[in-house]
Amino acid sequence: MNISDALDQYRDICGDVLKRYTAKLNKSFKTVFIETLLLYMVIPRKINFTRLGRYGTHCEQCFRQNFTKKFDWLSYNLLMADRIFDKLDRKAIAIDPSYISKSGKRTPWIGYFWSGCAGQVKRGLEIMGIGLIDIDKHDCMMLRAVQSADTVTLANRGATLNDWYLKVIEQYKEQLLPVSKYIVADAYFSKFSFTQGLHDLGFHLVSRLRDDSNLLYLYQGEKTGKKGRPKTFDGKIDVSNPDHSRMEKLDIYEEEGELYTLIAHSKALKRNIRLVIWITPKGAHKLYFSTDTEMSGKDVIQFYRTRFQVEFCFRDSKQFTGLCHSQARDINRLDFAFNASMTAVNAAKVMMKENGIPFSMDTLKNLMYNTYILKRFFELSGFKPNRKINAKLVKELIDIATYRAA
Length: 406
Hints:
- Keywords: Endonuclease, Hydrolase, Nuclease.
- This protein is 40% helix and 21% strand.
- It is α+β, with helices and mostly antiparallel strands.
- Helix 1 (6-20) packs across helix 2, helix 1 crosses helix 12 (331-354) and helix 2 (27-42) packs across helix 12.
- The mean pLDDT is 91.
């Protein structure tokens, strides 16, 4: 990759995907949109409207106005994911709520939400992230972020937070189902109401159960021919001492313990599931499952392990592209800011993959910032430097504080 052309490459990636975007957009919005994604990768530290206006070629008010406009982020990011994900690879939809630090009394839907990093409930905002994970490439691209309603709003609507999550998935069902019928989520979502809601929408859930879940063997014997309901279950599964004769052993991750799979009945979920029991070398056990009983045990464990890639997307967005920085007090502006932050990380990932460079947001952020500042300096100075004569000098200036990206 020619590091002096990094800005143009990043802008071209965003522009090429936008050309494939079918919805009608006016020219001015397209220009501001591409510049916004570029600035999210360029601006160091806090990213808000003031700094967008300071670093960009448009004024602060222009960014404020454009952030109120509706945009189909999910369709746009699906098109971007097509650039690095193969259609034949195994894919799943990963969902995960993430806490966003925020203060103020007039911020819409501010309330108390669980923060995984802090390990406690904190005041702020929450977004539900929807990502596309590629199991074979072990990677994730964020598709959409939707802000969660606070408890007061949910109470007024007679709904729970799980109902809200299901409503979000239902809203994008037509776009997500053609991609994958599997939703991968952490153990919080392994509830009957949620799994049943996903089933009604046409999805299957891949997740983890509590270690003390009540699970039953399915009866595999012959029918007795007696009157009454046929025998369905054949005893409770003791996961600390399972009957290996009723299970199939998996030959993956053998260095990390033993894996067994079978079709079992979960009393909590009120359905038969494809169960995978992971027994660690220390004797502890973890329970993973899929509501699709025809899914292989190998797929269940690999799908769930790849789910964690969505956490890296949140991490990069928070550390490098200002996911928590927006100071807006409008739902539409907050929504645009959250999704622009994650889409900027997607574009960076595409850029690094297509150039065959190991993904590093820190390296690319420094490279983009140095290149942008140098380019802006020449533009505002009114001089047009001779690139042949100054090529070496320009390269040295761009490389300052940047690890070699090529």
